[in-house]
Write a structure and sequence with these properties.
Layout (H helix, E strand, L loop, with lengths): L4 E5 L5 H13 L3 E2 L17 H16 L3 E5 L7 H11 L3 E5 L5 H4 L4 E3 L2 H13 L1
Parallel strand pairs: 1-2, 1-3, 3-4, 4-5
Length: 131
């Protein structure tokens, strides 16, 4: 099994939808970080204190930086941290994959591959693991 690390980035309020995708990747043998997915559903998208915001940002960047792949869900609207995580991953030479429609042309320069949906993304990682 692979044990290569994947970080999933997406809209905070949609995190419950990403959990099954993370589990599917784990079942394929990948290590998935993205501890933000484990925050309780009632959790706010922005921690109350600046100190807590900083702690969570450091954890996120550490997890992105230790990953081989960044999978960014672009199916929701708005930006948020996922755009920063893309730039950070690009600067660290981490392969970036996007799930969803094109957002802006500049992002197309950063990504290694785009998938129309999560099923196609998971199928690609499954085929890669079998190879």
């Amino acid at each position: 099994m692979s044990k290569e690390t994947i970080y999933i980035a997406g809209r905070f309020h949609l995190r419950e939808l990403f959990r099954p995708h993370r589990e599917a990747l784990r079942e394929l043998g990948y290590k998935c970080t993205s501890s933000w997915l484990d925050l309780p559903i009632g959790a706010q998208s922005v921690p109350e204190s600046e100190e807590q915001q900083m702690r969570e940002a450091v954890v996120d960047l550490d997890q992105v930086g230790k990953s081989k792949f960044l999978v960014v869900d672009m199916t929701g609207t708005g930006g948020g941290g996922r755009f920063f995580e893309m730039g950070y991953a690009f600067a660290k030479n981490i392969m970036i994959f996007v799930v969803g429609a094109k957002q802006q042309v500049v992002f197309e320069c950063l990504i290694a591959r785009r998938f129309d949906n999560w099923q196609d993304c998971l199928a690609w990682f499954a085929a890669r693991e079998r190879a």
